[in-house]
Amino acid sequence: GNSIVIIEHNLDVIKTADWIVDLGPEGGDGGGKVIAKGSPEQVAKIKGSYTGKYLKVALNK
C-alpha cells in the first residue's frame, strides 16, 4: 500500500484518516511532542489533545 503524510487542520479531512499523529501541545517552541496517535476515534478519547477535543464533536455530527 501507499502512505501519505499531511499537515491538516480541517476536521472533515482529519476524521476520515486511517491514522493520526497529533503533535503539540502548542506550536513553535511549545510543541513538537506526540500528544496522541491512533485512529480518529482513539484520538478523540485522549485527554490533553486539542485535536481530540474538537475531533470528538466532529465525529458525532
From TrEMBL:
GO biological process, one term: DNA repair
Subcellular location, principal: cytoplasm
Subcellular location: Cytoplasm
A cellular component term, taken from the record's GO annotations: cytoplasm
Keyword line: ATP-binding, Cytoplasm, DNA damage, DNA excision, DNA repair, DNA-binding, Excision nuclease, Nucleotide-binding, Repeat
Signal peptide residues on this chain, from the entry's feature table: none
Any one GO molecular-function label of the UniProt entry: ATP binding
InterPro entries: P-loop_NTPase (IPR027417)
Protein family according to the UniProt entry: Belongs to the ABC transporter superfamily. UvrA family.
Protein name: UvrABC system protein A
Organism: Neisseria gonorrhoeae
